């Protein structure tokens, strides 16, 4: 046991000596959270919108004036019909469109209710939500003003349509995504490289000739990264809580336990790569191309998996980050408990055991 | 028997059809400096790996420091030291950290680690380098340090796999002084080398050709036996018969 700690101590020295890598390890989560956080700012001013007014009556004019007067919107164009909308959105300049149907005012007067359609470009989901909320509240304002004068209350129903990204993916979802990405990067790549480095430097041979158990060599390599990554999880959560004001809705302990499980999954992946490769370059390429890219593409964090072709959807199931991403999202954002993530947890545990088993097996084969 | 620390009888290693090591038989006395020569691909490294307990022999017997290579590899590992042709200390750790680490994984107690590393540093006269990173030392120093570290746990036998590759003649000479010193302290030295002047320093040498030990004698007897003037010529005489290439 003492030998084990001697080894872990040495691994920590390696990690701490390499200042540049250390800076990246701790700096990366901070930078990523800040970039993602502030790129998705909530403050929206003078967004360009287009209006299609089929009604051209008193009520529609008044609402248009109110919208024009607000500091949130700037009417770029009045379009004659909805056919032109697509073109307008395609320029990328227009963030939202408001469509008044024919007989808007007379519907209000005679049926006491009328509809307005609000269409938003949801490729930036956060902005789209904000804009539609502003527009809805301006309309609600108008509605309550009108209702003060009337006995029978009017109801204007805004119908909101999100273009390009109907589920509004993105917004708070990037924190779980960044967590998956960073843990993947640190655990897989750093572990793989640090084990392969021993092979490349020739120190592995010395270690194998020593009475120190080979399996312990590998385990003690993983320990520093386990601790580093746990610190990273904590720092990401703190940042997203204090800087981005994103509350953690679910159980913090559960979130940490699941994160540690995913860290272990990644570590075994790193060990697996290191067993299979002999040079640091190969190990790095494999972790980048083989792990990081699928994490980005298939975890559902940047691109919705539901929209992918079926074969890719099936493929996404073998990406461990996908399951972790789902788990974190459910716990952190939806505030759900273990009952709703046990399946994903089981998948991660299974993957870990499987990877550990085959890496140890091929490690033994290489030894003889 | 007591004085024989390596006993090898008909030790063989096959990889499929390829016989890497073909029934080698030899014995090494305690405290002896045993040169293990052979061209590249002659099977030296494979033989050495079997003796270190890193790879299981296909057939034959071998006994290292009184332990069987099939059943007691763990005990063997506790009683041997090893230094490879690739330089093998950690560049990003200091001299002292390297020494303490290797002493630590051999399971030495804290008191032993302290006294052994102290005497190592003193005997090499590198008190002022103890807190320097190994990466900043010249290669010659690194190699001397690697050797001293390989025997920090006072093993019965130390295996040196081409320890002096790439260093200048002066440093090589100094390196061999360390080897002599270790041998006079009762540590058996098992060394492979490509430098025939180093072969002359050995008490006995074996020359491997195509997986077999073709000659096993003291350097002076070998020169007499083949009636040649230097170990270089003896080696060339034997190695040119080799069928295997690199």
TrEMBL record, chain A:
Signal peptide: none annotated. Belongs to the ABC-2 integral membrane protein family. Keywords: Cell membrane, Membrane, Transmembrane, Transmembrane helix, Transport. It is found in: Cell membrane. PANTHER family: MEMBRANE COMPONENT OF ABC TRANSPORTER YHHJ-RELATED, MULTIDRUG ABC TRANSPORTER PERMEASE YBHS-RELATED. One of its GO terms (cellular component) is plasma membrane. This is ABC-2 type transport system permease protein. The chain crosses the membrane at residues 21-40, 174-196, 222-246, 252-273, 285-303, 345-363. It comes from the Bacteria. One of its GO terms (molecular function) is ABC-type transporter activity. It is a multi-pass membrane protein. It comes from Flavobacterium phragmitis. The keyword Cell membrane applies. It holds the Pfam family ABC2_membrane_3. Residues 136-366 form the ABC transmembrane type-2 domain.
From TrEMBL, chain B:
GO terms for molecular function: ATP binding; ATP hydrolysis activity. Keywords: ATP-binding, Nucleotide-binding. It comes from the Bacteria. Gene3D superfamilies: P-loop containing nucleotide triphosphate hydrolases. Residues 6-235 form the ABC transporter domain. InterPro entries: AAA+_ATPase (IPR003593), ABC_transporter-like_ATP-bd (IPR003439), P-loop_NTPase (IPR027417). Pfam families: ABC_tran. PANTHER family: ABC TRANSPORTER G FAMILY MEMBER 20 ISOFORM X1, ATP-BINDING CASSETTE, SUB-FAMILY H, MEMBER 1. This is ABC-2 type transport system ATP-binding protein.
């Amino acid at each position: 046991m003492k030998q084990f700690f001697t080894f872990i101590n040495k691994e920590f020295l390696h990690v701490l000596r390499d200042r540049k890598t250390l800076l990246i390890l701790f700096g990366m989560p901070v930078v990523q959270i800040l970039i993602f956080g502030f790129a998705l700012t909530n403050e929206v001013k003078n967004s360009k919108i287009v209006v299609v007014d089929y009604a051209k009556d008193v009520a529609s004019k008044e609402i248009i004036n109110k919208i024009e007067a607000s500091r949130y919107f700037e009417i770029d164009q009045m379009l004659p019909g909805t056919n032109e909308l697509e073109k307008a959105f395609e320029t990328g300049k227009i963030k939202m469109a408001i469509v008044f149907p024919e007989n808007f005012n007379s519907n209000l007067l005679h049926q006491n209710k009328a509809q307005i359609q609000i269409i938003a470009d949801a490729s930036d989901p956060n902005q789209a939500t904000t804009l539609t909320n502003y527009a809805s509240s301006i309309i609600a304002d108008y509605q309550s003003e009108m209702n003060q004068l009337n006995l029978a209350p009017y109801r204007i129903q805004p119908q909101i349509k999100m273009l390009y990204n109907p589920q509004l993916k993105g917004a708070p979802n990037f924190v779980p995504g960044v967590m998956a990405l960073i843990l993947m990067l640190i655990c897989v790549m750093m572990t793989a490289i640090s084990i392969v480095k021993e092979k490349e430097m020739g120190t592995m041979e010395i270690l194998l000739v020593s009475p120190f158990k080979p399996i312990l060599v590998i385990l003690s390599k993983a320990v520093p990264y386990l601790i580093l990554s746990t610190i990273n999880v904590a720092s990401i959560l703190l940042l997203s809580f204090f800087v981005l004001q994103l509350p953690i809705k679910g159980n913090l302990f559960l979130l940490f336990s699941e994160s540690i499980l995913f860290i272990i999954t990644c570590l075994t992946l790193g060990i697996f790569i290191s067993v299979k490769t002999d040079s640091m370059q190969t190990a790095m390429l494999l972790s980048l191309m083989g792990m990081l890219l699928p994490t980005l593409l298939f975890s559902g964090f940047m691109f919705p998996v539901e929209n992918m072709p079926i074969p890719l959807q099936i493929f996404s199931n073998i990406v461990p980050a996908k399951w972790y991403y789902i788990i974190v999202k459910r716990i952190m954002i939806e505030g759900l408990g273990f009952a709703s993530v046990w399946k994903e947890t089981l998948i991660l545990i299974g993957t870990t055991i499987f990877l550990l088993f085959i890496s140890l097996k091929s490690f033994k084969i290489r030894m003889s | 028997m007591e004085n024989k620390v390596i006993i090898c009888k008909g030790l063989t290693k096959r990889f499929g059809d390829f016989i890497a090591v073909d029934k080698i038989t030899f014995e090494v006395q305690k405290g002896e400096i045993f040169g293990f020569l052979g061209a590249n691909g002659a099977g030296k490294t494979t033989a050495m790996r079997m003796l270190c307990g890193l790879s299981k022999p296909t057939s034959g017997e071998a006994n290292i420091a009184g332990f069987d290579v099939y059943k007691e590899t763990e005990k063997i590992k506790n009683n041997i030291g090893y230094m490879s042709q690739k330089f093998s200390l950690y560049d990003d750790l200091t001299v002292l950290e390297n020494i303490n680490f290797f002493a630590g994984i051999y399971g030495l107690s804290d008191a032993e680690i302290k006294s052994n590393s102290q005497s190592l540093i003193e005997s090499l006269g590198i008190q002022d380098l103890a807190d320097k990173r190994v990466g900043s030392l010249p290669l010659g120093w690194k190699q001397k340090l690697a050797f001293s570290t390989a025997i920090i746990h006072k093993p019965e036998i130390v295996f040196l796999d081409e320890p002096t590759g790439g260093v200048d003649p002066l440093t090589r000479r100094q390196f061999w002084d360390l080897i002599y010193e270790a041998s006079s302290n009762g540590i058996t030295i098992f060394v492979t080398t490509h430098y025939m002047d180093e072969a002359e320093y050995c008490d006995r040498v074996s020359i491997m050709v195509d997986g077999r030990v073709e000659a096993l004698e003291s350097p002076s007897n070998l020169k007499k036996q083949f009636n040649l003037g230097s170990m270089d010529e003896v080696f060339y005489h034997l190695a040119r018969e080799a069928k295997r290439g690199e």
